Amino acid sequence: MSVIRHPSTGTAVTVKQWRYTATGGETTLSGTDGFGLSLSYTVGAEEVYINGVLLVRGTDYTASTGTSITGLTALVTGDVATVMSANSFNVANAIAASTVTAKGDLIVANGASSVSNLAVGADGTTLVADSSRATGLKWAAATDVTKIPLSTVTAAGDLIVGTGSATVTNLAIGANGTYLTSNGTTASWGTVSAGGMTLLASGSLSGATTISSIPGGYKGLNLRLYGPIVSGGNPSNMRFNNDTSSSYYGNYINTTSSTVNTFSSQNSFPYIGGGGATASYYEVSIPNYTSTTASKYIFAPSAGSVNNGGITWGFWNNQSAINQINLPQSYTGGSYELYGVK
Question: What is d(CA 91, CA 10) in angstroms, rounded to the nearest whole number?
């Protein structure tokens, strides 16, 4: 017979009952029952009873064909076998299992009373909110919050600057000639005031010394030599751009003599200060060093021990911009600093 049930959803479900009285020895149930009803059931939705006792599917019997039950323990004459089976039905407002199609898929709402499948993401990705997506979610590469993202910098020369504990920001590269400064709280780019100086290079004097890659952007250069000692006690010489041609002219005077000494067509400035152990400080001013239309002028006072010093002034008869300073003597001591003058 058939039984009609009405779930709370309003969906009608038909339950078939097949009932058979054993004649003895049966291990399989099939065919028609005592009421002329053929055995049929939905695999997995059947219930088998012997004398009212529910059997265990897959243990007490096998139901795989939809028309027969096998694997029973032999029945005894008079045993009543009952097979109950509901027809397939859909529950209203239920999410269909077919919504997901692969391992790891997610069921995600894309609106009120509406869902869709969000396919599993790639290995290592994480689920993040994204309001531009229909589901409001997406898979994205995991972000390590303990590391600074590369996107923090956007151009060559940018700097990463701390703004607090475990927080940073991008400090865009400054304009040409600006320098990095601090107000005690944060870093910023500053502009060198007119007449101010920026250290461009420094180092020890050892053997022949070359100061190269001198940048432009300044009105002049200021070279300072501290305690320069030249092998043999010779005076310090100087060249520009490693020019060894006869292009250096000028004068020098020593404090121990009132005589002005003139030099011309030399392969270097031959005297920008004494070279012995008594020499302690030289300073060379080189204005207009970036000009490509005029010769380059120098003014170089020097001071050593008491009553020992001198001044050299002259020019390099060359219109090239200066990008290198050469101190060709063999130094055994001392240091230098080169400044750009605004």
Answer: 9
Is residue 234 domain-shared with residue 334, that is, in the same domain? yes
Find all residues with CB under 8 Å of 234, minimum gap 6, and list them: 275, 329
Task: Note whether 158 and 234 are same-domain residues.
Answer: no
Over residues 294-338, the pLDDT tens digits come to 999 999 888 765 556 788 999 999 999 999 999 999 998 889 999
Distance of CA 45 to the CA centre of its chain: 57
Domain check: are 203 and 274 in the same one? Answer: yes
Give the CATH number, domain containing residue 235: 2.60.120
Segment 39-45 long-range contacts (CB within 8 Å, at least 24 positions apart): 39/67, 39/68, 39/69, 39/83, 40/16, 40/66, 40/67, 40/85, 41/16, 41/66, 41/67, 41/83, 41/85, 42/66, 42/85, 42/86, 42/87, 42/88, 45/85, 45/86, 45/88
Q: What are 160-210's pLDDT values in tens digits? A: 898 888 888 999 998 887 878 888 888 888 876 666 888 999 999 999 999
| Tens-digit pLDDT profile for residues 250-294 | 998 877 777 888 999 999 998 886 555 555 788 999 999 999 999
User: Span 88-96, mean pLDDT?
Assistant: 69
Phi-psi region of 40 (alpha: psi -120 to 50; beta: other; left: phi over 0): beta
Whether residues 133 and 219 share a domain: the answer is: no
Interatomic CA distance for residues 78 and 132, integer angstroms: 69
Whether residue 205 sits in one domain with residue 185: no
